[in-house]
TrEMBL record, chains A, B:
Its EC number is 2.6.1.42. It comes from Oceanobacillus piezotolerans. Signal peptide: none annotated. It catalyses: L-isoleucine + 2-oxoglutarate = (S)-3-methyl-2-oxopentanoate + L-glutamate; L-valine + 2-oxoglutarate = 3-methyl-2-oxobutanoate + L-glutamate; L-leucine + 2-oxoglutarate = 4-methyl-2-oxopentanoate + L-glutamate. The keyword Transferase applies. Transmembrane segments: none annotated. Pathway: Amino-acid biosynthesis; L-valine biosynthesis; L-valine from pyruvate: step 4/4; Amino-acid biosynthesis; L-isoleucine biosynthesis; L-isoleucine from 2-oxobutanoate: step 4/4; Amino-acid biosynthesis; L-leucine biosynthesis; L-leucine from 3-methyl-2-oxobutanoate: step 4/4. Its cofactor is pyridoxal 5'-phosphate. This is Branched-chain-amino-acid aminotransferase.
């Protein structure tokens, strides 16, 4: 397939940028956005970078009714010498197509999507903040736009990329959080959409999240939907436990999102010769490990927070305090290394970072 | 709560109406729509009937990313004497609030929602078609509109009602369809969102639907997500089986949508003293009933199709032909009675129909 070139329409009236110290997650958006349309028969066409603007969309658009949508999340980082770089962006565009397959959305050209991300970041590179812990969050997403009220795959879609300069995702930062095991609500089940990045999984999670926050917890620990025994994810992150010197994470089973940060953590641990195993982990096993003193660490992993240490786990009346409620050594080392690589402060032995070339931005 | 009055902005340039014989499901929309906004702190406000138009909405709106949405579907019918009536609309607004609760969307005022439906139908009553089998499909829905990329309940929503004059939902009409048992994909699971009317359930269903159509079947028969043994729904309908003289439908278990047509079928069967039981039904039981000749009828029920007879059921290599592939007596009687009541041709012993008063439409 011949690669399409991206049309660029530059904004004249640049927006005012928020100050670095005022940045909160996902509330401010940059000057431009990427948009590409899909029409049945014509395929994906007209890739364009245009001024950030509202969409004019029919109230009958299928996205409002039947939730056919997928999304991704990745970040651009400002290095100490002023360069801008992405972290494993090719993994995001690959996963977008995996999600597309599950949601019956036509696949995108991964090279074009990657090029769109790079050009958009280059175009708005002034928006990549430079203070500690800040970055430019990039949100590619696809929505079904056909105005039709029948349940069927849409014949029209929009692939859009928007970007938001962000501070830390959690107000607690890298400090440990308290989480609660969710026994009633289920995030996903084998045969469902749990391994795809689609809106319905997140909509489904809101009720449990609301209830756990009322009880004073930051996130819920999701159990599997079939036996309600095995750990799946924590909030919207993957999860790791260090038990008796070995790090354990739930194996990808069809209902767990294959996180890119998860994969990075696994590669790092293997690189460091830290024992790591992907397998089923039951909540009972965690409880017993805590009782006999071998539950040494726990942490979530995700693009937004990178690593979120778990200081306390609540399950059926038991408050399991982990590592005295402090950030563990592995959590810290993984966090420092991934963020070190992302910000160009540490060596990148895996070639995870991709530099954004400012001068390659317009290719008309 | 004091009831808010609905602001009306009438369209000047009326659209051309499609001919009755050209009507297809959910493709044409009437002259007006209802819109009401929700803002955290202010609540639901500014209920308005306005000309049917596109929405101008931020690409960061949460609906595009995290799928927080609910919807309903009901119909207005033209009776022989020219009146327009609704079928059990109060059940739809009640269920909308049940769905809202699961999706963490603030509840709507049910009286106001009902009034909005009535006024909108009255306003566009010329759009209610009059030929056999046609009706005006009404689609109330709520979407999360806050421009924010964090996973949390939205602080802004829109409650919208759009309407579409429709012919028959299935091109087969009341003719029996072939369906296939789905063994791989799952529609919903207990603890998920299966009993709510939210986009994610429908998005999740598209893949299995696509695969079954390739094999020549109209719909999939969904099994439970835990044991993959028990019948849940067929396509996006509830399902009934007549086994050895008794009608059986899956009991509402938390992952099955509480259908309004389902409830109407149950009430009718009880009214007619036809044995009816709500319980778990396994696919194995259906297979065995077919083998011993007691699987006498099967049909789906839903607002769009009313009743959809099942002529053949495919399961693990077995083609189970039901009632010689013909529409069964109960399917026919239920269909004739519900549509008879809907179109005002038959007595309405349950007070299911609600007349729309044309002259009460503007109340400023």
């Amino acid at each position: 397939m011949e690669e399409q070139s991206i049309r660029v329409e530059e904004r004249q009236d640049k927006k005012e940028k928020p100050k670095s110290e005022d940045l909160i997650f996902g509330r401010n958006f940059t000057d431009h956005m990427f948009v590409m349309d899909y029409t049945e028969g014509l395929g994906w066409h007209n890739p364009s970078i245009i001024p950030y603007q509202n969409l004019s969309i029919s109230p009958a658009s299928m996205i409002f009714h039947y939730g056919q949508s997928v999304f991704e999340g990745l970040k651009a980082f400002r290095t100490e010498n002023g360069d801008v770089q992405l972290f494993r962006p090719e993994k995001n565009v690959q996963r977008l197509n995996q999600s597309n397959d599950r949601l019956v959305i036509p696949p995108i050209d991964e090279n074009l999507a990657l090029e769109a991300i790079k050009q958009l970041v280059a175009m708005d590179s002034d928006w990549v903040p430079s203070t500690e812990g800040t970055s430019l969050y990039i949100r590619p997403f696809i929505i079904s736009t056909e105005p039709y009220l029948g349940v069927a795959p849409s014949h029209y879609y929009k692939f859009i990329i928007i970007m938001s300069p962000v501070g830390s995702y959690y107000k607690e930062g890298i400090n440990p959080v308290k989480i609660a095991v969710e026994n009633q609500y289920v995030r996903a089940v084998k045969g469902g959409t749990g391994e795809a990045k689609t809106g319905g999984n997140y909509a489904s999670s809101l009720k449990a999240q609301e209830l756990c926050e009322k009880e004073g917890y930051s996130q819920v620990l999701w159990l599997d939907g079939v036996e309600k025994k095995y750990i799946e994810e924590v909030g919207s992150m993957n999860v790791f436990f260090k038990i008796n010197g070995e790090v354990v994470t739930p194996a990808l089973n069809g209902s767990i999102l294959p996180g890119i940060t998860r994969d990075s953590v696994i590669q790092l641990l293997k690189h460091w010769d830290i024992p790591l195993v992907e397998r089923r982990v039951s909540i009972k096993e965690l409880y017993e490990a805590h009782q006999n003193g071998t539950l040494e660490e726990a942490f979530g992993s995700g693009t937004a927070a990178v690593i979120s240490p778990i200081g306390e786990l609540y399950w059926e009346g038991h408050h399991l305090v982990i590592n005295e409620g402090k950030t563990g050594d592995i959590s810290k080392k993984v966090y420092d290394t991934i963020t070190g690589i992302q910000y160009g402060k540490m060596e990148d032995p895996f070639d995870w970072t991709v530099k954004v070339e400012k001068n390659s931005k317009v290719r008309q």
